[in-house]
## 1
Amino acid sequence: MPLKYVINPDVCLKLQKDKCGTCADVCPANAIDYTQTEETITLNAGSIVFSPGFKPFDPSRFDNYQYANYPNVVTSMEFERLLSASGPTHGHVMTMPKLPMKPKKKADKALAEKRKDPKKIAWFQCVGSRDMNKCDNAYCSSVCCMYAVKEAIIAKEHDPELEPYIFFMDMRTPGKEFEKYYQNAKEKHGINFVRARVHSVTEDRDTHDLNIRYADEMGQIVDDSFDMVVLSVGLEIPQETRDMAEKLGIDITDHGFCKTDSFEPVTSSRDGVYVSGVFNNPKDIPESVLDASAAASAAGDFLADVRGTMTKAEEKIEETNVIGDPPKIGVFVCDCGSNIAGVVDCPSLTEYAKELPYVEFATETLYACAQDTQDKMVETIKEKGLNRIVVAACTPKTHEPLFQESMVNAGLNKYLFEMTNIRNHNSWVHKNNPEIATEKAKDLVRMAVAKAALAQPLAEEKINVNDTVMVVGGGLAGLTAAKSLATQGYDTHIVEKKDVLGGEALKLYKTAQGEDVGEKMAALVADIEANEKITVHTNTTLEGVEGFVGNFKSKLVSGGNETELEHGVAVLATGAKCSEPTEYCFGDDDRIIKTLDLDKMLKEQDAKLDSVKTAVFIQCVGSREPNRPYCSRVCCTHSIDNAIELKKRNPETDVFILYRDIRTYGERELLYKEARELGVIFIRYEVDRKPEVKVEKDAVKITLIDHVLNQPVEIEADLLTLAAAIEPRKDERLANFFKVPLNDEGFFVEKHAKLGPAEFATDGVFVAGSGHYPKPVNEAATQGRAAASRALTLLAKKDSLFTSGTIATVDQEKCSQCGVCVSICPYNAPGFAADGRFAGTAEINPVLCKGCGLCVASCRSGALHLRGFDTNQIFSQIFALGEVV
Amino acid sequence: MNSTKTGSVVVIGGGISGMLSALDLANSGFYVYLVEKGPSIGGVMAQLDKTFPTNDCAM
């Protein structure tokens, strides 16, 4: 991005040998400049966000998979490009994708003739991850299990006959909604999952099919044949990033990831340098997005007292009043290079546009979006006195704001603009029928001109923003959010129903990195209590919320006293809780406890621990089950951490962990490794063959089938710890107060699974902590900061927050007070006017209206109108389409 | 203003994380320099086909 060409200086003949130069000759925009050279620029900045990313692992050095030699062994990144419509095969998955699509060499040509659509594809997991033998990457890359499942599903959607196989060690799908996706892949999409590490790949010399060999779960050697093998390569920190980290003077781990504190998870070892993304431990997109906002919050906190000192204010241009003036329309036809002009006859389209009613001016442009065209557009509007603009180009989704900005620069209201898409809807889809495409382009332009002629300037209403913040929930995530918002100068209120701050974290012993949670939480709470900008309301519940972004009024109740809090934004950080196990004889004997009970014993140095000779942990107690079809994310690491603690206290203690998949993602994998080295024994069980627990006088007896021996094993334990599922609070009342959704399990649903993980679709309401999904300390702190950062971007717009102009309005004289609009609106924008001449009729709250038009269509009195898309405008477009010119 | 700090931030890396960090900072009142060694921003995410769970185009 942007979708522009660049010259690769290493192979450019002009730059290397001063030959060729063809590109400069053919480029119609004169965009080629061979004289550009590297220059050094010095920037002065208050802080740095270091987000250098990763390199996909290069599997060439693995001789057993023969990636470098076999044409049908590809990496997952290459396969991603194969699936993509913009990739080398236009989304058509075929074998030997590494060969040129139109090979020139003789040997390649012969190979290419054997190309086929693969019918059987194998994915090999953990290539370059969790591997100390063939590479030094002991960590888990965190993302490969999910992307392999995704690639397999999409490949199967491309070709329903495809047989995808995924070869894995542990299936790691601990993210939100991930487990369901994995189960669906198995049950609905027919993806085959095989628990095995493939030993080797050989190639059939004739067909280039691949033969693989592995040991199945019973230890039997299996040979199988595939058309293609995809190596699920891990994420790696390249040497160049390590060098840069050294230059920046920040500490990194042995694997090159940044060292951070669990409670300040985006802060490097050097003041003023913050980190985000995969460099701050392997992570997927939503977590990278959370890191991004968290790093912005941390960098902002560091520079809180100089915030706003270097930003530039936009110059305000006086708007021309066009009301009452006859329309004078300017039409700009875009060639989009050859994207449009290669199919549509743009010169004749432009001539056609000139003849349309009210069109004062029409011109063809090579790229309507180019900066020089924009400048010319502003000039033309002023010079010709144009008062409506039509651009026939690409999609308004990406380009409308750009053109509207130019209109504003020329002193026109931005709603006097109309865009019609003659590329995506026309030249791209009708490229084989250029004549018809030209006719269609004329239709589209005629319709746009007809609508533009009726366009009216629309006003955007200013939203007043109260810059007080309310954080609901005084756990780690809420406190972290509050601290950042207060540091950047906003009055923040924390509402906590308990009598103390700290939440569930107070029950934890240590973090995965070994920090003492109690100490750290005490320090955080002390910071919060000392902060003058923060007001803490303990023993307080939220009993009602009114209003909307910028203007909320919340009813707080404490000990029977009711107070009202006015605030502009809200952060919901209500957390989650540990479930009560209903199996494994929990509650029958005090030797059977939950993970948090063991944490308590460790915290208190309980003497009972000294007499423990055999300790057993059972994982997934209540998680990944039909009634809780999600992974609780934190339990594997937590149990392993506690197992290590027990082993360290007394190496003679026998410790067993009974698990389904070990999900120690990222560098948590190193704990798993350490536990095994300390002699912790891991035994896997299947969900349909769960361990059986019997309480006896001398011991708690646990029986299960060992996955290696395929024989029953009996363990006599004197401590059985159950990794009980984390469950959400399912607070439907709170969700209703802010009109935010809960998912099937009762976790909050964020605005966008990938790109909006710390905010809700409801403007001005943000989410952090385990109420969103179970998460460990560092991730809760990250999301707390991320929510703060997202809230800050809104609060910082205090004086420039406006509603959209394209919203519904009511012609109150026509309103029959039927109330259909009130009941149909998903955003609660319509209501009944309380007083005045039109009391009882509908009125629209412009702040809540999203301009969807649902109420307009539902109104039988014709009282509702959608500004910018009024009935007469839509009809004029339809009539214009029917006109035969 | 007796601070010697500068109200600007350098963001190194134009992948999804760097881009969004830069946007948040710019929108909350800081001047931002986004530095990327390659010829375009977007990083690895821009190379992905579709993303879980909505199968939205990654671009």
Note: Helices of chain B lie at 16-27.
## 2
Amino acid sequence: MEYIYHVAVLFCLYAILATSFNLLVGFAGLFALSHAALYAIGAYTTAILTTTLGLPFPVPLIASILFAALLSIVIAVPALRVSGHYLVIVSLALQVIVLQVIVNWKSLTGGTDGISGVPTYSFGSFALDTPARFLIAAMLGLAACYWVAWRLTRSPFGRALRAMRENESAAQSVGLDILYMKVSVFAISAGLAAVAGSLFARYFSYVGADSFSINETIYILAMVILGGTGNLRGAVLGAAILVVLPELLKFLPMPVDIADKMRLIIYGCVLMAVLVFRPQGLLPELRGKKAMFVQTDAERDEADTAKLLDGETGATSETVLEGRNLCKRFGGITAISDFSIALRSHRITGLIGPNGAGKTTAFNLLTGFLKPTDGQIDLRGKSILGKKPHHLVASGVARSFQDLRLFTNMTVIENVVVALPNQAGHRISNLFLKPLTVRAQERENTALAMQILRFVELDGKAHETAADLSYAEEKLLVVARLLATGAEVLLFDEPMSGLDQTTLREILPVLRRLAERGKAICIIEHNLDVITGICDEVFFLDEGRTMAVGSPAELMSDPELAERYFK
Amino acid sequence: MDLFLQLLANGLINGSHYALLGLGFGLIFSTTRIVHFAYGPIVTFAAYTAWLISGSMGLPLIVGIAGAVLVAALLGTGSYLTLYRALERNGAPPLIPLIASLGLTIVLENLVGVLFGTGVRTLDVDSSVHFLGPVFFTSIHVWQVVSFVVIAVALGAFLRRTRYGRAILAMTDDPEMARVIGIDTLKVSIIVFALGSAISAVPAVMVLLKDGASTHMGFAAVFMGFVAVIVGGVGSLRGAIAGGYLVGLVESLGLWQIPTEWQGSISFVVLFLMIMLRPQGLFSMARK
């Protein structure tokens, strides 16, 4: 019986680890494989504080959480600079370095001998000194950690995390603060892992570096991937299976060290098999209506949508965004030089020119995705030079991408909701301190997103996954997502390319209506019919220089430009 | 000064070792873009195979080396055909093969333990000590340098002179384009997995002769291979060689100032700094 309680305690520890790792790997898409090192930090901090300083509960636990969270920021730094393969390898290297420091810092950590004699929890005469009693603490720990993870992921913040995972630059382009999200998800994930570490130290009353090797990280990773990345219950299920399954090996006659190796072989095989045969895991990420955490049938009057879709200016046209003498060089190559543009409300401005003319570079400069080598950018007369893309979105300048960059593994409505401005639920503190505000706002935002989808006539597909849309529908969703930002300056990078005439006739009036409502619109376009159809003013760029500015009719009648364009 | 010369020589010897590991790993990585982490335990497997043949069974070392090369090539090809190929067919995102490779790594590493036991396995060979002025080295050190030079020259000739070699280079440049112009990328992938793994068997045997084989040796091997490739710049085999030597020298000369117990960490710190500061590698422009 004791044995079963022991396995149950192990399950609780690994369920905490898998849940916290799932936040990082499954929701944020950050494959930083140094989780066992953070687990180790939690365990060692508790062990050292209890054995050398004799600090009482809950001081060591809190210290473990804080210290691991602090250290995780060191790991977050690479994650801000590199991604993919590089992040995996660099985090594995960090895991090795942390373990090496633990082993070599003998005076503090006992080196390879580890630290023994860590006292278990005791309250008066009641000590949690048997597996059955300790299970109470382990279950409380798991419940608390799971609740924190649940609160984080079933929230606007969790949705923003997934958007960042799907496409980081698109997440920035809808106003999400990548730095804040990465650092905080690292810190929370590490803090939760440290809870498991602290429990580990108390339960085994011993910590040694062997328990926190890279194999341990891969073991936890296998749980997350088996259960289902991006599904909280999945990680817990994965932990349950991978803790219990190898215990069955104990019933086979084989030496202990072989059994231990067989256990690891099983984990490795499970990891590979899941990736090949069921990459989404046993419990896939929630989709469709289940992806939402409030009902979507809430009613809402038109007025508020109008507020979002309207520009802030009155009936007259005035300059909103102005770039002067902008110049961008990459090494020796000049992508664009001496580019000056003024985007006015109620107006649609077009950028045309052959490929490589510098049109997209101009967009990148105006929206903060690139820093100009030279020149000035003003928004309503105030310089916005050097501001980050998400700041500019908040100030009212947003853009779309030529290659769409939708959040493909999220639903259509999620793609729109995530872009809505000023969401209290994007801040972690609000999720825990102002849950009711967050919920009420979420209800409003969901209804608002529905209205925007209705505006582009995608409301029928609101709960479908973006990946399943047709190309034309994807283009409409790009427009809807950009509108959701509520920005008054909207820059569209080739919104019409690849569309047939019928769909064109659907999108063109949408843009015109937006301009009529006071937005300042800029589009990059190759289709001259579109340009002549909707633009008030056209810039012709070639080889990074502005060749001509004027009304579409003026530019079309210039034979030299026509020759350049069609050369 | 004598210490400096000795550390320099050690750096060059270790550098040859790392360069060879980098060459094998880099060949696979730059051609297929798969981060074949299981390269590590395959190195371990090769070392234990050589021990089994030449130590346990008492056959000549050359037979042991041949066996190690064969086993490594088979395991490398096998992992491509069974695991990575299946993932490629599924259209898995680029990170997934690496994650799967981590799974394969713990399977192979523990399989070594189950099959051969966990203790360190050594092979006694006649290793004479030589002096060159104040610098001391053993004949195994000489073999390490010689084996690297021979393999590097042979590989260079193979890549430039033969049809398959040129196909490999083409795929390294641009896998999509290689496919478009009619190169059989499946065949090329199989060849690089076989060749890269076979190359790794040589440094594996050298470790067996020098320090003995242990189940954990593969981890250091794949990391050093990766470091060499990253330092040199992905896609450049010459870069991988330069990277291997650079890491060998930094690690060895670092001993001048850094206590020995930290030597193992130096390469990880180098890797960390490289990826953070210059992920495109030091010599990424050198190839053109």
Note: Chain A has two domains: 2-214, 318-566.
